[in-house]
Design brief:
Oligomer: single chain
Helix content: 25-40%
Strand order of the largest sheet: 6-3-8-2-9-1-11-10
Bound molecules: 3,4-dihydroxybenzoic acid, fe (iii) ion
Number of helices: 10
Distance between the termini: 15 Å
Radius of gyration: 17 Å
Mean pLDDT: 98
Structural class: alpha/beta
CATH superfamily: LigB-like
Strand content: 15-25%
CATH class: Alpha Beta
Shape: globular
Low-confidence stretches: none
Number of domains: 1
Amino acid sequence: MARITAGVASSHIPLLGLASDLNKTGEDYWRACFAGYDWTKRWEAEQRPDVVILVYNDHASAFDMKIIPTFAIGCGERYKPADEGWGPRHVPDVIGHPDLAWHVAQCLILDEFDMTIINEMDVDHGLTVPLSMMFGKPAEWPVRVVPLAVNVVTYPPPTGNRCWKLGEAIARAVESFPEDLNVQIWGTGGMSHQLQGPRAGLINKEWDNRFLEDLTANPERLRQIPHIEYLRETGSEGIEMVMWLIMRGALGANVKELHRHYHVPASNTAVGHIILEKRP
Ligand code: DHB
Ligand code: FE
């Protein structure tokens, strides 16, 4: 049987991808930020997951204002890095797992989550930057990926509680897949950041750290955070953190925190990263 073994959350700031691509991670500005992922890279190399269900958001790369799915699942064979305006990143193509993806799509839809099914798309920094943070610069990504895209770009995004319940349904779906697969679920984006307007550059360390603390110990509080609180306390892009709740919902009540990292700032954004092991 397939099983979810762990959840990982990480920011997906495009500049992190650029620092990795240009071999700048040892420079003064980046050293401490990337050092927080050294433990993770070793842990991932030991864990050797077969598949990552990678919860992320597209930033007007595959979708635009013409089509905005609230929840979408990638069922394709492979996904190319998107051209976000300065050419695609020189990172490997992302290899999908169509059998698992179609199974999860079927289970979720029969479980009354109305997923959009995607067979072809390019994937932007929201998906490729977390891969770089976890695996560095391999010739091929060492894992297959089921992309799960969430609308956090245009109002109204889904509630945190809905995201949590989707995570629970994803866990049920994975556990009913007959192949023996080690599956991780990643929640990406965040933490506090606002990229435009008079509050551009807003970072809220206290709020972010309480979110990290409660993700392990008191996630019930996080399910109830209203959109307006994310907006007010964490800036207009802080809403990306609802995607972490899909990851957390998939892990169930018992988790062990294995690793945590918080660094400010990188670009305009607070970098947050946590690894939670699923416990029976
Ligand atoms: C930045 C952060 C993001 O989450 C994003 O999608 C784009 C840019 C930034 O901090 O530069
Ligand atoms: Fe983003």
